[in-house]
Amino acid sequence: MRYVLSLLVIAVMVAVQTSPAAAMAGYRETFQKEFLSEPWAGDREESDACIECHASDIIKSEFRAIPTEWKQSWHYQNDVSCHSCHGGDPKDAATSMDPHRFFAGTPKPAQVPEFCGKCHIGILKNYQESGHGMALKSSGKGPNCVTCHGSHNIQQASIDIINEKLCTKCHSYERSKVMRQALFLTEKKIEELNNRLKQLKTEGMAADEEEKSLFGTYGEFRALFHTEDVSLVKKRTDEFTAKLDIIEKRIQDLFDELRFRRNVSAFLALIFMGMGAVILLIAKTKKT
User: Fold this and answer.
1) Which pTM value belongs to this model?
2) Sorting pLDDT into bands at 50, 70 and 90, what band is 178?
3) 29: Cβ contacts below 8 Å, ≥ 6 apart
4) Over the stretch 20-72, which tens digit does the pLDDT of each residue have?
5) Rounded Cα–Cα distance for residues 261 and 282 (Å)
6) Which residues contact 140 (CB under 8 A, 6 or more apart)?
7) Among 137, 133, 124, 183, which residue's Cα sits nearest to residue 158?
8) 8, 75, 110, 126: which could join 226 in a potential S-S bond, CB 3.0 to 4.6 Å?
9) Taking the CB of residue 68, how many other CB atoms lie within 10 A of it?
10) Angstrom distance (rounded) from CA 117 to CA 123
């Protein structure tokens, strides 16, 4: 019964944004679709009110693609859900948009950096001090996080986001191109080490410490993107190179250990095969 009442509340909340008549029409429509189509008894599986509402007919059509976009995102892969960013209570439709449950809704363009910066603290600081951040602060029209990263289908950050098509929406590509070139070698090295770590995991080798170190270094590197300071990037390239060299050495040690284990296993296998052959030969000799 609570589920049914919650859905009716949402229907009314959405509908009253237009008119009382539309509100009543939305109420009746939701009642018929949700109440009459649901069983009167029995437990329901735990659900997410945000996803259910955005996937239903009571929401505007332009908002229905959001769940699909989110499920293709880097956020989804790392268990960052709707309420992680927007607040509210995803388990109760009646309070999913309640400010008392910290529902924040959709931020205005100028509020986006602080909105995303709740999690991306280091990146926020560098962004605010950059040309992008200062432009947004002074005019309210500068690029914010979603300008480059999108809002819901957010992918893992990389220097691929620095490209002519995207950057020339606001300015020329020349300065951005220099930044991309300055970041290229470090980005390539991080990608190579990440692939080697994946290979180790498929071989059954634990590399948790190396993964943590690479993740932390990558986080610092991503934050550096947002300074837009080419001279700073070039200055810190040696620092990142040194950190990555240490991680690479530790990864190589794990590969050496893996090779040693394989050689020992092969050697033991040969010994057992040899012993088996000797035992078989002795057995045959006794019979004769």
Assistant:
1) 0.68
2) very high
3) 11, 57, 58
4) 444 444 544 554 444 444 444 444 445 789 999 998 888 888 899 999 999 99
5) 31
6) 109, 110
7) 183
8) 126
9) 12
10) 7
